[in-house]
Amino acid sequence: MTxxxxxxxxxxxxxxVADSYRHLPQILARQRLGPLLAVVSHRRLLxxxxxxxxxxxxxxxxxxxxxxxxxxxxxxxSRVAQRLLTQLARRATMRLPVLVAFGGGVVGDLTGFVAxxxxxxxxxxxxxxxxxxxxxxxxxxKVGIDLPEAKNAVGAFYQPRVVFxxxxxxxxxxxxxxxxxxxxxLKYAVMADAWLFRFLERHVTACLHGNPxxxxxxxxxxxxxxxxxxxxxxxxxxxxxxxxxxxxxLGHALEAATGYRRFTHGEAIAVxxxxxxxxxxxQGLMATAARQRIIRLLRALGLPTAVTGVSLGAVKRALRxxxxxxxxxxxxxxxxxxxxxxxxxxxxxxxxxRLMREYVKP
Length: 362
Ligand SMILES: NC(=O)c1ccc[n+]([C@@H]2O[C@H](COP(=O)([O-])OP(=O)(O)OC[C@H]3O[C@@H](n4cnc5c(N)ncnc54)[C@H](O)[C@@H]3O)[C@@H](O)[C@H]2O)c1
Ligand SMILES: [Zn+2]
Description:
Helix content is 47%, strand content 17%. Strand 11 (332-337) and strand 12 form a beta hairpin. The protein has a seven-stranded mixed sheet, with helices on both faces. It has a two-stranded antiparallel ribbon with strand order 7-8. A two-stranded parallel ribbon has the order 10-13. The chain has helices at 24-30, 43-59, 78-91, 105-117, 131-137, 175-192, 194-202, 204-209, 212-232, 248-257, 265-282, 288-300, 312-319, 349-356; strands at residues 2-6, 13-18, 36-41, 63-68, 98-103, 124-128, 142-145, 154-157, 162-166, 307-308, 332-337, 340-344, 360-361. The radius of gyration is 20 Å and the shape is globular. Helix 3 (78-91) crosses helix 4, helix 5 runs parallel beside helix 9 and helix 10 crosses helix 11. It has two domains: 2-173, Rossmann fold; 187-361, Dehydroquinate synthase-like, alpha domain (Up-down Bundle), CATH 1.20.1090.10. Zinc ion binds next to helix 11.
């Protein structure tokens, strides 16, 4: 079992990467988390892996209740959050529960949000079960729900007390969801880890079909990067955390322009990554050969590098909601080589928009 620390003074916490839930009860006991746990998850996930998890927790002397939500981005809503809060208020009258997010990023963001507001804050633990959630969304404390108007529109910075990754549960992840996580991993590689980039190039097949050793390498490497970045810039005020948004400016706009239904998060940021790489080359910030390597790897992983059937106007409208487009300025995270990215305001808006036409076609 590997332990990675997110260093945030009194809000510091460990990330464990393991191949079973065996040690989880001791870890929770050490952090004084218990004895009442409220596990938030999906019915199907509990049916598949809940047996192993709940048995282990109960054997460790913990009292566990479960609450399920539908498998959909629509679960990140005030309606579902309200339902969970009501259930908690009714069932946890005597003692404060510790919330446990057992699922992907949807369950993680929602559970963290409910934990942040129930009784002005109860502790919560992340047990991420998708590749994307293990490498990214479970770490860093960005929690929240969506409004019909915008994604992640209501939320908080509220750090978990423990993140525990059981890489074995990734074996049942559908290929499309695995690819979505791989796009995020490729993002980390391009922005901060040339070694990881080469690793992905060499192990494309294993990355796509799932292999516990390979998954472990990817999860550990990315968790370390995210932990380091969050430790230095918890609330994205120093520009350090902004770099994690490589590929996300166009990516988020594509998701919004298509109603969050057409693309997975990873598919959208794959296109954003291809675009950012090209934009960087046109600005003379990166060599063409590096861009070609990025495109080749995106394709090998079966990820899209451009989209058709999406309105460029809708994408531009969505871009205006991006925090990086404050007061009409275009601010981009651009790679400068494999393993390095910068935040720049030096790209003229007209050039950025002209290039976008090659990536977003009607
Ligand atoms: N908080 C952050 O910093 C942050 C970062 C990135 C993304 N996010 C959020 O994360 C969400 C996306 O998360 P996601 O990609 O994990 O999607 P998700 O949570 O919707 O999970 C995808 C699907 O996989 C299923 N699933 C989960 N684990 C499985 C397993 N082990 N085997 C089989 N199926 C499994 C889920 O039930 C679901 O149907 C978005 O809402 C996004 O905004 C948050
Ligand atoms: Zn992302």
